[in-house]
Amino acid sequence: MTSTAPAHDTVSRVTELPPQLLQPLYTVTEASRILQIPTATLANWARGYAFSTPSGSHAVGVPLVTDFGRAKRHVPTLPFVGLAEAAFLTAVRSTGVPMQRIRPALDRLKQEMGLEHALASQMLFTDGAELLINLPGSAEDARTLRNLVVARNNQGVFVPVIEGFLRHISYGPSGYAEALKLPQYGNAGVTVDPSVAFGMPFLSSNGVQVDAILDRFDAGESIGELADDFDITRAVVESLIRASLKVAA
Q1: How far apart are CA 29 and CA 23, in angstroms?
Q2: Which of 32, 95, 109, 170 has the greatest number of CB atoms lying within 10 Å of its CB?
Q3: pLDDT per residue over 135-189, tens digit each?
Q4: CA 46 distance to own-chain centroid
Q5: Hey, which bits of 53-105 come out as E strands?
Q6: Which run of H or of E encompasses 24?
């Protein structure tokens, strides 16, 4: 899980991304369903997003999420590192910070940390908040960063919603996110790991793919039957169903 190692120790552990983190696993539609965000939102993050400038003109921002096939449809183009980046942006989005203000912060993180995929790096948790709150910038930058980080005990820390998200990430020896627990499933314990179940959500307790359970429920099997067959509690099955209904809505 996350670590609070000093910055110099963290830097020494960061390596190139393992190949499994860069393997395209998801379509934008699949990734948005996993994260429970609108498909159009993720498409904007992965393929560029339009916004209005202070002067009233329109512009298109560069992508915020790693994607290897921006012109392709219905084929996997998003790797796990992109899913992790999008998950972090989902937490940022809930703070009310406009996405067009995130790019300058990312550029600063990349410049200071030397990371191509800062949003998926363990250094974001260990050093990112401190770095962002102390870097010089415009008054507008300062207002933006106050929605992301706060000063506590003379140090920069992320606001609670982002800290909560970071606690759901597991980092590997590479120093990058290598597994993500999906909070929308509650105590059911659902994880996404590129090395398990082809990167699809699965139960941490027994490795069963979530879709395998939901498909059988959709086919008419009862909650009790599913609980017995997969050796899980009824409460777990119910949590999976509730989360899937939220996506459908």
Answers
A1: 17
A2: 32
A3: 666 666 667 777 788 877 767 788 888 888 888 999 999 899 999 999 999 889 9
A4: 13
A5: 58-61, 78-79
A6: strand 24-26
